[in-house]
What does this fold into?
Amino acid sequence: MTALPPAATSHAAVTELLRAAGWSSDQRNATEVPGVIGQALSKVLLFMDAPDHTRLRRLISKAFTPRSIDRLRPRIIELTEKLLTPLRAAGRFDVINDFAFPLPVTVICELLGVPTSDRELFRSLTRDMAAVIDLDATPEEFGRAAGAALTFTAYLVPLFEQRRRTPEADLISALVAAEDTGDRLDAAELATTVILLLVAGHETTTNLIGNGLLALLRHPDELHRLRTYPDLMGSAVEELLRYAPPVRRVVRIATGDAVVDGQHVRAGEQVIAMLDAANRDPTVFAAPDTLDITRDASRHLAFASGPHYCLGAALARTEAQIALGALVALPDLELAIDEPRWRPLETLHALEALPVICTPTGSSPGSPNGPRLAAQR
It folds into this structure.
């Protein structure tokens, strides 16, 4: 078994990796990464350094400003209510598959201008691509990820051509226009950027909603406090991001010899920035293993920090606040099983399913497209 790279676990060391000069995201700088993999990832925003990262991020960022996200709030509320109406009536559902996945994937599809009817295809491809960010992915998993990327690209190219002919008020049209006007976005960057936005736009938010609700259900005093004082939702989401982050770790490559948390690192060596460990550093967060929705958790690193700070942070916060607010309001909500299943991933902290029950309200619609858990029981 190949030894894992050194890890930074303290809040200070992780922040240094994410913000300081001397650390790269470009896998081509890593001596341990095969050249073909580093080259394949070099067009992906997550694995870029300045200046390419800076110019590409600038092209995308206007769609994800807090002001832009505020305009999406009514639509997110509408989608939340539409999804929860049959689930409330059933009184039994799977939070992940029936709600936490379809909500953010619909939002990001609408923002980009991708048909929401294809969201199950995106979910399948996303799962295959998740292996790329796991350090211990096998060659077979990398192969499936490459195949998923090709399928994604084949799906998107005709959509790009359609937007060139008939632009619409969506992000894909804006990115295609940037490519056509020579605004430093090439065809490969266009495809990989849209794929990344589709994947990241729902994967981490799904995990945030699922992990956050599970944490609240396992801490009934905090759940009761949030129900009693719903104005705490903003603070609660920050604490849930700290306590159960949807992404556990990211990787940086040393561009020169360095010392990280007392470990000597050579140039070209990868270092794991443990976001979850940094979020429980007792020198920054008192009683870090305690869930406290009144805590000031603003220094958490769930969205990373520095140049690669999560582009969709404002959107994820908004979706989580609305979604969790609606979920915790369900009467007599509780887990339907003792131990929910987790996906076998190291980097992503992701539930496979989260079955819950609540007091049914109204009558069940009896639709064949209704909650799958209700249909199973």
Observations:
- The longest strand covers residues 249-254.
- Confidence is low (pLDDT under 50) at residues 363-377.
